[in-house]
Amino acid sequence: MFGRLLDWSRRHPGAVDALWLVPFAAISVANGWFVANLTGSGARSVPWPGVVTGPWAILVFGLMVVVPLLWLRRHPLGVFAAVSLGSFLQWLAGVDPLAFNVSVLIAMYAVAARRLLRWAVAAGLVAELGLALSFGRLVTYPDFVSWASLSVFVVAIWIAGIYANTRRRYLLSLEERAVRAEHERDQQVRLAAAAERTRIARELHDVVAHNVSVIIVQADGAGYAIDNDPEQAREAMRAISYTGRQALAEMRRMVGVLRTDGVSGAGSLEKGSGEGRSEEYAPQPSLSQLDDLVAQVCASGVPVELRVTGPAQSLPEGEQLTVYRIVQEALTNTLKHGGPGSSAVVEMEYGPRELLVRVTDDGRGAAAPRSVDGHGLVGMRERAAMFGGSVEAGPRPGGGFRVTARLPIGEMGRSRAA
Can you give the pLDDT at residue 372? Predict the structure, then answer.
């Protein structure tokens, strides 16, 4: 219950101020009115000629030192100055200190609790000065014991404000250190994870290199023994099969550790991770799946036409994957930035030594807002560069956007891939 009450008070500081200020104001005004009517005027002397110090004047002084407390939380220095000035005018008018003059101590506590030490010291000295002036008028002979007792009370309130200020700053520093420690811990975790991935990558390289070396040696041995010793050749082939399976299992295991974000892909047209873990080991897409990709984009609301010209040629799996990813990323950009009513055309032109892939849309093109975290074009260029190709992308003169990729095929493409 107390926790909920504390949370409510933090969310509604104005209501909390009103809860304690309204009763204090009512008691202060009632006290002033009662004293004024009981003593006749509430004043001992009037240094200003013509100043009225009856009940209504005391009510005015009470409002002068109580109403500013409404802004105490936001402007403690200004409120303390206003309350001190009102109390000083009250002293000049010859009105004795009353209950509402406790506002000076309340404002002094706020200054000590919320402002720098120099302002707290200044507020404490002003409060002591006001106490000395009031004490000198209340007594007819020096009474240092009573003055010292009241001063101790004022100093105690001032020290309480200083302690509250120190504790608040200490708690803020603890929160800052906790946040900084949390950030440092997260950074250490990321660094440790990156170091572990690097170590696993080195191990993956060593494992694959070792197994591939074994496979090469066994294959060479099988090639020499296939005519003279078929049984030894079969043993070598079985060793190749076993070593290849072991290498594949080890590679899948280590890549599964490195792959922290699910199946890597080039765009939002990838399958989600909720289709089962078996999708991680599914074969990579190839050119035979371009029709499925086009159908998927059409189902998303963007009409796409696929055109293939020239005699189709056999491409390595890596180059087929590169073409698929380039088309996928280009169509993803059309979905993201093309706007309503846009359409796209995918053209694949097989030449003697080059494959030309062109994805054109009639969307907003350069007028579309650029994504701050988009790396699609960079990824397309990197994929094409692995096979000695290039990618050009930009808005069309008549509107829309165009992505053009050129990839070598035949012996040139295979030599570049190697």
Answer: 39
Rounded distance between C-alpha atoms, residue 145 and residue 2, angstroms: 42
pLDDT digits (tens, 9 = 90+) for 14-51: 666 666 677 776 777 666 666 666 554 444 444 443 34
DSSP state of 410: T
DSSP string, 2-31: HHHHHHHHHH-HHHHHHHHHHHHHHHHHHH
Determine the pLDDT at residue 384.
85
Find out whether 204 and 254 touch, Cβ atoms under 8 Å.
yes
Match 């000083």 to its residue by tokens. Answer: 88
DSSP string, 266-310: SSTTSPPGGG-GGGGGSPPP-GGGHHHHHHHHHHTT--EEEEEES
Calculate the alpha carbon distances from 345 to 141, 358, 379 in Å: 104, 8, 21
CA distance 271 to 302: 18
- 203-209-210-214 Cα dihedral, nearest 10 degrees: 160
> How far is the first Cα of the chain from the last one, in angstroms, to the nearest whole number?
71
Burial classification of residue 269, based on how many CB atoms lie within 10 Å of its CB (0-12 exposed, 13-18 middle, 19 or more buried): middle
User: 161 near 113, Cβ under 8 Å?
Assistant: yes
Sole residue written with tokens 């998927």:
296
Alpha carbon distance 161, 154 (integer Å) = 11
93-114: string of b/e by CB count within 10 Å (b at 16+)?
bbbbbbbbbbbbbbbbbbbbbb
Residue 32: how many CB atoms within 10 A of its CB?
25
Among 45, 113, 41, 34, which residue's Cα sits nearest to residue 73? 113
Residues with Cβ < 8 Å from 218, sequence gap 6 or more?
Answer: 236, 237, 239, 240, 243
Instruction: Tell me the average pLDDT across 179-187.
Output: 84
Q: Tell me which residue of 346, 264, 236, 238 sits closest to 302, measured CA to CA.
A: 346
Residue among 249, 255, 325, 254 at smallest CA distance from 287: 325
- Which pLDDT band holds residue 407 (cuts at 50, 70, 90)? very high
**Residue 405: pLDDT band with limits 50, 70, 90:** very high
- Residue in the structure block whose two tokens are 């005015």: 60
Name the average pLDDT for the chain.
75
SS3 of 393, please?
strand
pTM of the model: 0.41
